[in-house]
Structure formats: structure tokens, C-alpha cells
């Protein structure tokens, strides 16, 4: 079907969209609770951090087994492609453009580092990660330094991400709308652009993944909170 016969292209499957908004919620929640200064809120910092890690693992798996435009092979490009895109500014297919893909990968890496290191650190008052006692004091100290320093990397990337969304919105590219509805205007792309798979089969696969990772996240949260400690 050509773009002249359709008004929109399904780009983002439902699991990808749910991941995006849940992940954003957890990241914001983790930042707010740790910066609140309220010790009692640290329990929620644990929950948000561990759930964010589970979601991150989901996204990595989904990057190989999900629908067309969610797969890393579809949007992760070499530096030369990113430079060419910056010169031309015209993506050939729906989904993440080369520059947007770079932003996605950077965010996933930064938040992944933050979530993983959080499992091994302590605030030296009440809270510590579920695996703090499984590593040496030196290793825990290194993890804590990375955890604290990496905050600024995350803040910078989030700000750049938001500025990019605003810039594209001004240009008429409704990125937020597409991540809510799953569809992008067909007239922005070539007539032979394929649609993303978003049927019951792929949603059931996502549900299986979510249940499995959810159980692991619940175990980690329970392991931490039942000991009266968190990261």
C-alpha cells in the first residue's frame, strides 16, 4: 500500500510504547526520590531503580526480538551514517533517525550503568544495594563513585533528549504523538515504507518477557527491602 492510500504508518508496537513511558516514569521517579532529601522516599528509589533495570533488560531483548523499528539492527548506524544524516537531515525510513538512535543508545547505556552500580552501593546510613555485601569495600567504593558521577551524564542526556523532541515538534514532526499512538504520518516517508508488526503474537511474547523480568525485579526489591536496606 502506498503512502497516498494510507494516512499513517504503524511504527511503534504497543510493548515498545509501554516500555518508553514506564521507563521514563521510573527514571524520573528515581531522580525525584533520591533528590528529595527524605530518607523514607529511598525505598521508592529502590523500586524505581530496579524496575528501570528490568525494563532496560526488556528493551535489550526487544532490540533483537521485537518489531521492525524497535530492533537495533534497524536504527543503530555507524558514525559515517550519522554524519551524512546531519548533512542531509532526511531519514529514509520511519523510526529512529541516525541521530535519534545515538541518543537512545547513550541513554540506555547511561541509565544501565546507573542501575547496575546501584545494586552494589551503600549510603552509609540506612540503605545499601542488594549485592553490596557480595563485593569488596574497594569495589563498592568504585561503584559508588560511578553511581554519583554518572548522574550528571544522565541529566545532560535527558535535557538533550527533551530539547530534540521540542525541536522536532516545532518542525512539525510529532514524535510524542507517535510514541503514544504508535503511528507516524505516512506522507513523511517513502511510499514503500513497511509497517511494524503489532499483533497479538508479538504482544504475548512481550508479556512473557515482562512477567519473567518482573519476577526477577520483585525478588531484588524484596531482597533489599526485607533487609531494611536499599541503594
From TrEMBL:
InterPro entries: Cyt_b561_bac/Ni-Hgenase, Di-haem_cyt_TM, Hydrogenase_cytochrome. It is found in: Cell membrane. GO terms for molecular function: electron transfer activity; heme binding. Residues 11-182 form the Cytochrome b561 bacterial/Ni-hydrogenase domain. Keywords: Cell membrane, Membrane, Transmembrane, Transmembrane helix. It is a multi-pass membrane protein. GO terms for biological process: respiratory electron transport chain. The chain crosses the membrane at residues 18-34, 46-65, 99-121, 152-170, 200-221. GO terms for cellular component: plasma membrane. Its main location: membrane. Pfam families: Ni_hydr_CYTB. PANTHER family: BLL0597 PROTEIN, NI/FE-HYDROGENASE 1 B-TYPE CYTOCHROME SUBUNIT. This is Cytochrome B. The lineage of its organism: Bacteria, Pseudomonadati, Pseudomonadota, Betaproteobacteria, Burkholderiales.
Amino acid at each position: 500500500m502506498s503512502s497516498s492510500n494510507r494516512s499513517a504508518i504503524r511504527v511503534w508496537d504497543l510493548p515498545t510504547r509501554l516500555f518508553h513511558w514506564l521507563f521514563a516514569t521510573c527514571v524520573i521517579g528515581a531522580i525525584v526520590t533520591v533528590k528529595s532529601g527524605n530518607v523514607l522516599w529511598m525505598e521508592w528509589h529502590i523500586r524505581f531503580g530496579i524496575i528501570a533495570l528490568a525494563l532496560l533488560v526488556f528493551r535489550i531483548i526487544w532490540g533483537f526480538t521485537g518489531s521492525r523499528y524497535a530492533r537495533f539492527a534497524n536504527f543503530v548506524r555507524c558514525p559515517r551514517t550519522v554524519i551524512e544524516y546531519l548533512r542531509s537531515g532526511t531519514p529514509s525510513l520511519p523510526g529512529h533517525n541516525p541521530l535519534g538512535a545515538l541518543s537512545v543508545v547513550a541513554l540506555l547505556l547511561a541509565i544501565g550503568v546507573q542501575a547496575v552500580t546501584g545494586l552494589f552501593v551503600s549510603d552509609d546510613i540506612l540503605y545499601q544495594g542488594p549485592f553490596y555485601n557480595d563485593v569488596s569495600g574497594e569495589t563498592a567504593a568504585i561503584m559508588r563513585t560511578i553511581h554519583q558521577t554518572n548522574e550528571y551524564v544522565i541529566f545532560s542526556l535527558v535535557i538533550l533528549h527533551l530539547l530534540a523532541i521540542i525541536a522536532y515538534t516545532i518542525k512539525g514532526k510529532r514524535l510524542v504523538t507517535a510514541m503514544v499512538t504508535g503511528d507516524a504520518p505516512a506522507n513523511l516517508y517513502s511510499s514503500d515504507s513497511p509497517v511494524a508488526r503489532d499483533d497479538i503474537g508479538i504482544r504475548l511474547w512481550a508479556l512473557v518477557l515482562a512477567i519473567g523480568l518482573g519476577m526477577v525485579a520483585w525478588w531484588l526489591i524484596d531482597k533489599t527491602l526485607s533487609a531494611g536496606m536499599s541503594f
